Amino acid sequence: MESKDRLGKIFWGIMACVLLLANPSSTVWAAPVSPLPLESKDSPKEMMQRLNKIVASLLEAGELDQAEKFAKKAKAIGEKILSPDDPIYATALDNLADFYWAQEEFSSALPLYRQALKIKEASLHPAHPQLEPTLNRLARFHLSREEYDQAEPFLEQLIKIKQGELGPNDPGLLPIMNQMAGVYRSQEDPAKLQPVLEQLLKVQEASKGSDHPDLIPTIQELGEIYLAQDEKALAGPMLKRLLKMQEKTLDPQSPQLMATLSQLAKFHFSQKKYDQAEPFLIQLAKIKSNELGPYHPDLIPTIQQMAEVYRTREDSAKLQPVLEWLLKIQEDSKGSDHPDLTSTIQELGQVYLAQDEKALAEPMLKRLLEMQEKTLDPKHPQILETTAKLTELSMETGNHEQVRSLLARELEIRKKESGPYHIDLAPLVIKLADSFRDSGNLSQAQSYYRHLWQISENSPEPQPLLQALVLQNLGEIHFKRNNPLNAEPLLMQALSIYEESIGPDSLQVASVLTSLGDLYSDRGDFSEAEQYYLRALKIREQSLGLEHPDVASLLKNLGYIYKVSLFLDHAESFYLKSLQINEKILGPDHLALAETLDDLAEVYKEKSELEKVEAFYQRALRIRENALGLEHLKVAESLRKLADWYHQIGKMQEGISLSKRADDIIEKSKIP
Question: Nearest-CA neighbor of 595 among 623, 567, 571?
Fold first, then answer.
């Protein structure tokens, strides 16, 4: 019953408006129950406004059939009595458009909304609050159709209206600004999205505080936008703020937290600020390890970034454990022989070398060589480079057998390519020959030195230095084999070639002179040996300086000659000079000093300087004990020398004690 009364009131009010608007001069009596008392003095505009309100009431009440009739009538009347740019007419258009909107007849609604908006903008102001409902409808329509380019201007206008109405940071702006951000997000337009997000963040901060968790999505997206826009000065602080908030609110294993750590690491890395990237990578690796386990493949990208940080900083000490970790993961996930491991193994070998970790470097380089041989041609530069490094390392570690194996393998590869006597093979053959010589395999060494001679003779260019090198080494081999008659002419020939080719004062000449001195000294021709040693000493002192190990060695040789020749003051002087040089270079307790100390003790024995004899023998013994251990045969020899001296000077008890200790060491050494 109440509904019928209400409709009746509305109906009679509308009819009165219609009659008045149709004939403004007539007097109309409204129904006594009209909710909008009409007076004859109301102007057509006022009556039109009342009619618009009644239509709005019908729409609000859901009486769409009645609303349609009177909305269309209002539009028709407005067209007759109002100017086309009158805001009241625009309201009539809005009402009719609202009806079509409610019926989802958007094709009919949109032209009316646009017409009404145009009238209001012209008559009021583009930022007037009365434009808001129409703009809302138009924006919502285009957003629902994903027509973002068309929605954009309406949303921009709405934001200006709201800001003018509420202020720039009022929470009432949030819905519209979120819609505006969605538009630019969908358009993938970071340049336009950035200021919207910045304003949105200010609104959120004003309404919720700067640390509220609801700000996290905006801060996160804004940080990503700054990165995309290369706004480094803004991106860094925003990402750090995001991380701080996430650490307060999220689980440590949260994917969002890990993503932020990764972004911060990449951000600092891109700026070459490796010290700042490092803590984020460490934290990220720790989180992933706790979540997935320390050797999960998903850790590989993070560990590789950590490796790059330390690699760029040239920090081998920190790079080593990271590469070891990376290799372990790669082995577990791909297998120990997978080609993808090659680069890690190669770099780890280089790091071990840089860290002087020879015991780790050697097997790593061997492993690298084995992997390279499976995938690369034997002559590939990478294989040759690895072989060269492994050879050099094996030389340093004294693994002569491996050195020779590697060199022989490389030599065979190169011989197939260039022939057996190409001059480029000379460095390899020299290394092989030297290795066999140093290991005592003189026959093999001699064979390779003769191969070198054939290389020199087959060279298109004269090779005097190479030939001199061969002659010198062949001469020294004959000397070591106790064939001085064969050794001497070879050494003399080498000396002549060196003197003619590179001058009489070269270090190569000094080397041959020393070998000749050794030869003459060994056969007791000390006068001749002295001349060669003195000439070699002069060259080395001029070329290497007065305190070089090679100078000390020659001084020691001369000391021996003067000792056996009983030129004891000369012997003492040369031995002491040699000792002083080695003490300075090697330190006072180096094993190399012990032999010179024994020599000096023998000199002082001949000079009857008894206290010095005991002091030098005791010092030599102490050095050997510290360097070799108490049970070494060299220690036993040292004990016997001191014991013999004690016997000579009457310290029988001390001598017997030391002799017994020496005998015990020798007996223990015989036990298998």
Answer: 623
φ, ψ (nearest 5 deg) of residue 28: -120, 135
Cα–Cα distance for residue pair 621/645, rounded to 1 Å: 13
Cα–Cα distance for residue pair 637/204, rounded to 1 Å: 89
Using alpha carbons, list the distances in angstroms from residue 343 to 296, 313, 320, 381, 643. 19, 19, 14, 15, 60
Across 146-157, average pLDDT? 84
Per-residue pLDDT band at 672 (split at 50, 70, 90): low
φ, ψ dihedrals at 165, nearest 5°: -80, -40
In the chain, how long is the greatest CA-to-CA distance?
160
Backbone angles phi, psi at 56, to 5 degrees: -60, -40
pLDDT digits (tens, 9 = 90+) for 339-392: 999 999 999 999 999 999 999 999 999 999 999 988 888 888 888 889 888 888
In 136-190, where do the E strands start and end? none
Which among 239, 305, 311 has a CA at the least distance from the CA of 269? 305
Q: Which pLDDT score is estimated for 42?
A: 64
Helix (H) or strand (E) holding 71: helix 64-81
Q: How far is CA 333 from the centre of its chain?
A: 21
SS3 content of the chain, % helix, strand, coil (to 5): 80, 0, 20
Confidence (pLDDT) at 48: 86
**CA-CA distance, 669 to 662, in Å (whole number)?**
11
3-class DSSP state of 211: coil
Among residues 114, 115, 120, the alpha carbon closest in space to that of 87 is found at 120
Query: What would the pLDDT profile of 2-17 be if each residue is shown by its tens digit?
Result: 443 444 444 445 445 4
Asked if residue 539 lies in contact with residue 576, where contact means CB atoms within 8 angstroms, the answer is no
Q: Is 592 helix (H, G, I), strand (E, B) or coil?
A: coil
The pLDDT score that the predictor gives to residue 41 is: 60
Tokens of 366: 């061997």
Rounded Cα distance between 153 and 478, Å, is 100
DSSP 475-531: HHHHHHTT-HHHHHHHHHHHHHHHHHHH-TTSHHHHHHHHHHHHHHHHTT-HHHHHH
Alpha carbons 536 and 553: distance in angstroms, whole number: 11
Three-state secondary structure call for residue 629: coil
The pLDDT-based confidence of 279 (bands split at 50, 70, 90) is confident
Q: Give the pLDDT of residue 22.
A: 44
More confident residue, 621 or 402: 621
Q: What is the pLDDT of residues 18-34, one digit of tens each?
A: 444 444 444 333 333 33
Which long-range CB contacts under 8 A does 125-133 form with residues at least 24 apart? 126/157, 126/160, 127/157, 127/160, 127/161, 127/164, 128/161, 129/161, 129/165, 130/87, 131/157, 131/161, 132/158, 132/161, 132/162, 133/94
Residue 394 makes CB contacts below 8 A (sequence gap 6+) with 362, 400, 402, 403, 406
DSSP readout, 18-57? HHHHH-TTS--PPPTT-SS---TT--HHHHHHHHHHHHHH
User: What confidence score (pLDDT) does residue 229 get?
Assistant: 83
Helices (H) then strands (E): counts for the chain: 31, 0
Residue pair 142/150 in contact by the 8 Å Cβ criterion:
yes
Rounded CA separation 196/159 (Å)? 10
Identify whether the C-beta of residue 599 lies closer than 8 Å to the C-beta of residue 556: yes
Using one digit for the tens of pLDDT, what is the confidence trace for 221-270? 888 888 888 887 887 888 888 778 877 888 777 778 788 878 887 887 77
> Distance between CA 131 and CA 156 in Å, rounded?
12
Q: What is the mean pLDDT of the chain?
A: 87
Distances, alpha carbon 379 to alpha carbons 185, 210, 412, 417, 568, in Å: 55, 65, 11, 9, 60
